[in-house]
């Protein structure tokens, strides 16, 4: 009985070439390419609300928000990753022709059934290793709840935020996001059930 053939790892160069012509987005994790599914209406409402309110507050400043069309490149000794955060704020941007950023100070991810484990585990550990990172915000889409990881002198501290009257302060940018702003236009289901989505697969 023959063993199954191991899939070959993809080089960074090949991944970036594929992304230039691909009809759908894929993330890159140390040689593995992982296809992404589209988000729900509710997911996109939450994401675009955050983008709108942060962009409005950052007008005229050097720091600017980027949506999920902009890749984030992470590199360590023998690791390279490319993610597509739902939102990242960058104060030291790559050149205008670049297809990725490297130094975000704030990242926001909106949880989905298909990405939840990655956002709360793999991506959280990776994002908190970024030297420039000041805050990582993870938002539920089906109820007004957030996990906020803030950089302090003692390391990153976790804060749980709940309710439409709560506020997520972003003092290092001179900004804040109210939960009411974040969830404006979201219709919450009576039982707060998050609808299932397609699986988040490796290619």
What does this protein structure show overall?
This protein is an alpha+beta fold and 203 residues long. It has 4 helices and 13 strands. The chain has a domain at 37-70 and 83-182: Alpha-Beta Complex (tt1808, chain A). The chain is 22% helix and 31% strand. The strands form 3 sheets. A 6-stranded mixed beta sheet has the order 3-6-8-9-10-11, sandwiched between helices. A 5-stranded mixed beta sheet has the order 2-1-5-4-7, covered by helices on one side. A two-stranded antiparallel ribbon has the order 12-13. The chain starts with 11 loop residues before the first helix and ends in a 21-residue tail after the last helix.
